[in-house]
Structure formats: structure tokens, C-alpha cells
């Protein structure tokens, strides 16, 4: 019998449509010893009043040019205080949204924020899903989680979501469903459109920490798999077919099929991923990752590529080692599987 949590989570298959000094101390002024001007040879020193100290000798321009000085010393960076940062973020959230704002911590790093009036079932369900998802993500999948706290703002509908963006960023929200800003470590989401946004967005800081060299297509592909998460038991998480499939199927059955190839995905630059065919690229990336996950190879491939990226920047060698085929050789198999979904 299917786990009730898996069924409940699978129905939430919606996701986002869009998607990181101290002053040195000035060196002390250079000083030099006075010139040792003694008496001339054969002369007899006679007592007399002490002469004033001789001024420092003048060095010429060439001497100044070659004179070495000590480099500025940067002050030591203060140690990062995770608990203190979590407390600060919770306090800032209450300042931003009001004293009745509710907050809780998930996996030590996520400070989850619910605006005033959003208490009870919906917020608790969101937090429960985050905990279950993180248990899966960190179970032999991602090697590490972020070291610093992240604020996660969950708004129950679009009006409060957009109002927050205009107040915080002086601009509309950059995505309809939600987004992650690495610069200030803020996630902001309209959960009224579905909890799939939440399980998608929390993947990004995990990839950022665990595999910072990962290309956009892999980052978004893994995140998009979990827009439709199925959690069958603690520590397990997978994805099922979702709303991105029709776009990919349309491409694979039209003149676009030459652009919707598995090997094209591996060669795709980040700027091209986010070009005018971004919707197709998201769909391709998602179903490449879901195809691998269904075969039990997604995380073996991910970890192999992560660990060998210096010598395998495209990931094709890692793919062949894990799958047994090059991306070009696997394309017919992947295409057939995708069309049969």
C-alpha cells in the first residue's frame, strides 16, 4: 500500500517557472638610522657641546623605488556563529513582517518563516515536507549541506509574496512561484501555488555547497525532479512525471527534436540554458535526471562528476562510466523512455 505521505506529496507537483574584508592596517612609517659621521682620520676629538643629531640621510628616487615595505595586514575574520545567525534571521523576519511572524529551524540551517496569520496546518505541512525532503537529500545523495543559515519565507498567496519583494528588493518578485537569492541567502516562495516550489528551491543551496562547479542544467534538472516528490519512507525521495513533460514531448515529436537531445544537454552553456527556449531546457534537464534516478544512477553519476570535474568538466566521462554509454549513444534510449511516459 502506498505511503499516505508519498501520495500527499506527489499531488503537490507544482514548481517555479524561472530560476554568492576587512581593511588592512597601514604600514608604519619607514625609519632609517642616522649617518655615523665620526671625526676625520688623524683628527683629535675635542670636548664641546653635544651636536644635535644628524638628520636622516636622503635616499635618491631610485632608492625609494626599490625600498621594500611590509604589506598591509588584514584583520582576522570573526568566526561564523551559526546559532547567532539563525537568531538574527528570525529577529529580522519579525521586523520585516510583524511580531506575530512564526519561525522554526529545519536541518540546523533553514530558518523557515511564516507571516502573521498563517499558522496551523499549511505551515506545519510545509515544515514537515522540508524535514522529510532534507532527510532524503542528505541520505547518500548530497555530500554536505550549506555551512551558513538561510532564510526561507513562505507566503500563502501571491499578494503577500509580491508585497514582500517590493518592500525587500524594491522590485517585483523575479519568478512567479519562488526563487533563491544566494547573495543574502533568502528563499522567497508563494506556497499557495504548491509545495513543489519548496522541494525544488532547497536543492539549490545544496548543490551550491556540495558541487559549486555544477552547470545550470544539472542544478535545475535535479531541483526540478523534486517538484513532484514522492517520499516512500524516511531517507528516500524520488520524483514522478509532472507538468514539464508535454513541452519535452512536443519537441521530441517535431522539428525541435535535434535540439532536444541528451548529448545537447551535456554541451549546453549556462547562458544558453536560460535563453529563449528555457522552458524546453528545463524539461530536458528534468527528464534526464529523472531517467537516471529511475535507473538508480542519478546520484552515482552526480557524485562521480562532482569528484572528477577538474578533469571532466562536461561530465561526459562520468556519465559513460556510470551508464555504460556516452550521452549520444544513450539518446535513443532516453528519447524512447521519455515518449512512453
Overview in brief:
The protein has 15 helices and seven strands. By secondary structure, it is of the alpha/beta class.
- Radius of gyration (Å): 30 Å
Q: H/E series, N to C?
A: HHHEEHEHEEHHHEEHHHHHHH
Q: Shape from CA axes?
A: globular
State the oligomer: single chain
Helix content: 40-55%
CATH H level of the largest domain: which superfamily? Collagenase ColT, N-terminal domain
Q: Find the structural class using helix and strand composition.
A: alpha/beta
CATH architecture of the largest domain: 3-Layer(aba) Sandwich
Mean pLDDT: 83
**Lateral arrangement of strands in the main beta sheet:** 1-2-3-5-4
Sheet with the most strands, sense and barrel status: 5 strands, mixed
Please provide a written account of the structure.
The chain is α/β, with parallel strands linked by helices. It has two domains: 82-210, Collagenase ColT, N-terminal domain (Glutaredoxin, 3-Layer(aba) Sandwich); 216-341, no CATH class. It is 44% helix and 9% strand. The protein has 15 helices and seven strands. It has helices at 4-10, 61-66, 82-97, 121-137, 158-169, 196-201, 203-210, 216-225, 245-252, 262-266, 270-273, 278-294, 298-308, 316-323, 327-340, and strands at residues 102-106, 110-114, 150-155, 178-181, 186-190, 229-230, 238-239. The strands form two sheets. A five-stranded mixed β-sheet has the order 1-2-3-5-4, sandwiched between helices. A two-stranded antiparallel sheet has the order 6-7. Strand 1 (102-106) and strand 2 form a beta hairpin. Helix 7 crosses helix 8 (216-225), helix 9 (245-252) crosses helix 12 (278-294) and helix 13 (298-308) runs antiparallel to helix 14 (316-323). The longest helix is centred in the middle third of the chain and has 17 residues, at 121-137. The two termini are 22 Å apart. The model is unreliable at 1-68 (pLDDT under 50).
